[in-house]
Sequence to fold (620 residues):
Amino acid sequence: MSPPSETAAIVRGDPATYPEWFDARRRARPLIVSRWVPLILVGIPVLTLFAIVVYPTVWMFYHSLRDTNISSLFSGNHAYIGMENYATVLSSERFQDSLVHLVQYLGFGACLQVLLGVVLALTLYECVKSNLWRTVILILVILPMMLPPSIVGVLWRFLLTPSNGAVNQALLNLGLISEHIEWFNAGISLWSIILADIWNWTALPLLIVYSGRVSLPPAVYEAARVDGAGQWKVLRHITLPMLKEVIAIAFILRFTDAFKFVDLVYVMTSGGPAQSSELPTYIAFQRGIREFAIGEAAAYAIIIFAISAVLIILFLKYMKRVMKAQGIA
Amino acid sequence: MASLDTTMAQGPAPDRRWRLVRLLFLAFLGLWLLFTLFPFYFMAITAFKSAAETNLTVPTFWPQAWFPSNFAGVFAEPTNFDALVDSFVIATGNTLLALFLGTLAGYAFARFPRQAGGENLAFWILSNRMFPPVAVLVPMFFLFDNTPWGTDSALSLIILYLVFNLPLATWLMMVFFRDAPRELEEAAYLDGWTPFQAFVRVTLPLVLPGMISVAMLCWIFAWNEYLFANLFVGTEVRTYTIVIPTFTHGSQTLWNLQMAFSLIAMIPPVTLFILLRRYMVRGLSLGVVKG
Fold:
């Protein structure tokens, strides 16, 4: 058979003029709108995010390699200096101190919040049986999350006022302390911020773990009961292993938030006294917008960005797994 | 789906030791509630105290005299009311923008996943919400300086809040559109409607409840935002979140007025949250609802 000429009529069923894949490809395109409609629908938000997130990040990366300050930013007279900004940042005592603060915040703020969240969520689910009570308790526990950071900050500043604050007075009345605690002295002010943050955000891991527990299949628990497993065994061998990914998500979420966490520092202590409650993110903002050392701020930002990127990739990995398991995606 | 009011099957049969442990855990939950609610209680009673009483050396846990006039006193300063208006304008403007863009993109992701860039692009959009804003804010601060409206304007915040609200709106609308049955839309095509008509008159009404809840969530986050506003605005435009820490008279903080103003500003988000708790929990179980 000769190859089909360009003018040959297309005959259905004739493999020479009507290839087998033709039908398959026609069926594989269920689009009722033209191809560029979804591209535009998604393209506008994607371009917006490129303009307000990706472009600034690239801008920061560029300036982290240059000796930019406020005047050279506008005159354009900044020069490439390699990794010098990173060296300055990494070797500065201010940054190293803030890393110590960050570790304290992660260990006693973020980790404690997740632990408390897990305990409280499982308590709420296993020990409170009435639906009404569950709902009421959840609403009350979540209330602090509905406040803006500035209210949380001023409220805790007020409660922790050393001379006549409510917390000191309450502790005195209960006989737990014999003299006022100086909540905003060097060495303690960071712990005050962590306390306010625990109050503000423990409900987030609580809620994540609680909704994770609610969506566990009841059949497994029926089976365990038939087998005569006690509460502890069920908790250790069924509930916690099945909630592993959800708890991981809660951890990662609080850890990524630790790199965003800066507003309470602004409201409660402004990093003080004597820079004793500064976190890396706070220094990045101060250097960039208040002290105009843009190259250095950019180096801070890129370091923070890189650590966050690792955490976010981990987060998305677990998210996909949980969403597949729950049939959401 | 996870929700606050879900009933579940009973756990395994309780034994005696378990009963004691259960009581201990319940006591802990009670203590936690006390810890959570005490600041709210103290905030509420402080809002009714006189300025003199808030500065006593020994704080009172019940007001000696009640001053409901504090709430009117907050608005004796007209700038406080203006701050609420500014916050409202910014939050509403940003919500409308994020919802419009997010609905379109969410629809494309749900109906034409392959053509719209697939799962990875959707996850990339979501990840924008989680990145620390530090890499965004410093450059945007200098970039907005060169625009005609400058940094200190409602428009700059309306655009910037898209950083966290656009990923949220896109992601949640995608989930809601996936739940809306595709068959109804296809039936509309068979009746000779154009895709646009089918979208507006069939699918959109189906996801309307979801849209409303997304709008309210976005609105709460924009209403409560502090960091961006603190760095960008302050003279021409002042959101209430940056006004609250500035309640001073000379060197003294006016705690009673500050707490009264905080209580007033809390009303919208708390009301919306109580109305919306199911959706909030659903959004949370997707790990994205966080300011």
